[in-house]
């Protein structure tokens, strides 16, 4: 899906075929707000509850396949996303892929059918806090109490979904000094964290996203059409990129003509990028 608030960029929450019989949601990367990434890129974090909520409302499919490939992130976002998927009036299939940990495993429990690739790994751990600044013993004690409450609730959540007892789940979370340990798909199945192991190469598996080339071409075409609709005339384009210069009269006729030429070239390029980006890149060369 595309965020059209002035710039076109892909979301990590990629939802396709929302109105067909089956919809696919890809959850990749950090879950929740990644403040460091926002500081580095100047862009809002994509994998948040707010971003997914409205997208889920658009889905009318009878089955929703959720592909999860994430190291985890914000527990609050993970819990709310899990509950949103559970409340969806559709069959939900969760596919855990790659190295998925922490809040990603929480979302993985949302499936009507919980699955894991035979090549994937999963990790659960004790709750962790990220902080900066100065702490005193009272603050630290309060954090420990909060952590105990959260850990207890998480253990109950996993216990409800798995075949392990609460103390066994706690022991698994305690490994590695509370950072947990990576378990295989076979382990996850034995512990009851998933319902089945799948082979990504199994062509008869209807719950595997085949990443067909036609889907990719459709996506490229949609992006191209959005770009053309978004900037129809050279004057609008010039205003978007040179608004301040236009107001001050610093944009020369020669530069304006160059923009028009590049605009025409971008329209005929047939590339799966917005023509704004194509033109901007060439102007910077």
Describe the protein.
- The protein is of the alpha/beta class and about 280 residues long.
- It folds into 2 domains: about 200 residues, 2-enoyl-CoA Hydratase, Chain A, domain 1; about 70 residues.
- It has 11 helices and 11 strands.
- The strands form 3 sheets. Strands 3-4-5-6-8-11 form a 6-stranded mixed β-sheet. The chain has a 3-stranded mixed β-sheet with strand order 7-9-10.
- A hairpin with a 5-residue loop joins strand 1 and strand 2.
- Helix 2 runs parallel beside helix 3 and helix 10 packs across helix 11.
- It starts with a strand and ends with a helix.
- The relative contact order is 0.09.
- The N terminus is likely disordered.
Terminal CA distance? 30 Å
CATH topology of the largest domain: 2-enoyl-CoA Hydratase, Chain A, domain 1
Summarize the biggest pleated sheet. 6 strands, mixed
CATH fourth-tier homologous superfamily of the largest domain:
2-enoyl-CoA Hydratase, Chain A, domain 1
Number of domains: 2
According to DSSP, the number of beta strands is 11
Structural class: alpha/beta
- Please provide the ordered H/E string of secondary-structure elements: EEEEHHEHEEHEEHHEHEHHHH
Strand content: 15-25%
CA-based gyration radius: 23 Å
Number of helices: 11
* Amount of helix: 40-55%
- State the CATH architecture of the largest domain: Alpha-Beta Complex
Mean pLDDT: 78
CATH class of the largest domain: Alpha Beta
Gross geometry: globular
Uncertain runs: 1-12, 228-238, 269-275
The quaternary organization reads as single chain
Biggest sheet strand line-up: 3-4-5-6-8-11
């Amino acid at each position: 899906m595309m965020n059209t608030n002035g710039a076109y960029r892909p979301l990590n929450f990629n939802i396709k075929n929302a109105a067909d019989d089956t919809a696919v949601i890809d959850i990749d990367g950090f879950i929740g707000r990644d403040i460091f990434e926002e500081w580095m890129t100047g862009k809002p974090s994509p994998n948040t509850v707010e971003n997914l909520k409205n997208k889920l409302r658009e889905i009318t499919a009878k089955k929703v396949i959720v592909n999860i490939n994430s190291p985890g992130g914000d527990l609050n976002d993970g819990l709310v996303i899990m509950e949103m998927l559970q409340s969806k009036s559709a069959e939900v299939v969760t596919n855990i892929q790659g190295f998925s940990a922490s809040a990603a495993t929480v979302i993985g429990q949302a499936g009507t059918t919980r699955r894991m690739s035979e090549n994937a790994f999963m990790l659960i751990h004790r709750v962790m806090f990220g902080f900066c600044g100065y702490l005193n013993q009272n603050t630290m004690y309060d954090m420990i109490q909060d952590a105990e409450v959260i850990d207890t609730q998480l253990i109950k959540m996993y216990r409800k979904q798995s075949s392990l007892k609460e103390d066994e789940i706690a022991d698994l979370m305690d490994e590695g000094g509370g950072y947990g340990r990576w378990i295989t798909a076979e382990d996850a199945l034995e512990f009851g964290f998933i319902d089945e192991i799948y082979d990504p190469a199994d062509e008869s598996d209807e719950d595997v996203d085949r990443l067909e080339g036609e889907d990719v071409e459709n996506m490229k075409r949609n992006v191209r059409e959005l770009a053309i609709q978004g900037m129809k005339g050279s004057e609008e384009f010039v205003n978007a990129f040179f608004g301040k210069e236009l107001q001050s009269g610093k944009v020369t006729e020669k530069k304006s003509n160059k923009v028009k030429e590049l605009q025409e070239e971008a329209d005929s390029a047939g590339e799966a990028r917005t023509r704004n980006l194509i033109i901007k890149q060439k102007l910077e060369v």
